[in-house]
Design brief:
alpha+beta; SH3 type barrels; 3 domains; four-stranded antiparallel beta sheet; two-stranded antiparallel sheet; 3 helices; 49% helix
Amino acid sequence: MKCRRFLPRARRSIHCKQGRLIAPNRLPLQLLLAVLAVGTAFSLDVTTRDGKTYKHAKVTGVYPDSLSITHSTGVIKVPFDNLPDTIQKEYNYDPAQVAASRKAADEAAKAAAAQAAAAQRERAQIASLPELWFRLKAARRRWLWK
């Protein structure tokens, strides 16, 4: 029989701590179950200040002004103002930083709106050019006939 290390990877066997043989085709299933067990161990119930409770909540995203939470019935983005103090401290919530980011976002939105308005005015001027050209041509003809 060949040495074990020269066998193809699919035919090698894997042993657990107790020395039992684990079939290679069952290993992905066992790894998946282990990952799911660890994932559920870190889920918690979150109760907001307005009284809503989210069961089996996991934080999936952190934003300057809110947290994105996946819970038993879906996904929600909860503002830090509505979360308990313990969660606010855990994610380093700073109201001054949130106010600054909101102000910057508002200024960026105003600048984008001003730019869009300028682009719209420019498109309107370009659209009116053929009409102006026609009027200029008509006025020139009238001048030549006088």
